[in-house]
Amino acid sequence: MVKQWFSKNRLMLSSLLVALIGIGLLASCGDNGDEAAAPGASN
After folding, report:
1. More confident residue, 32 or 12
2. How many Å apart are CA 15 and CA 7, to the nearest integer?
């Protein structure tokens, strides 16, 4: 039963996964930008 649900909703699940990965990448890029700006201000 679970396999049938997964096969039906594979497209939705994959798009959700891509969205989560994209949000994670954007968040990590934002964090890296803040970290890069902090040493420049302290120096």
Report:
1. 12
2. 14
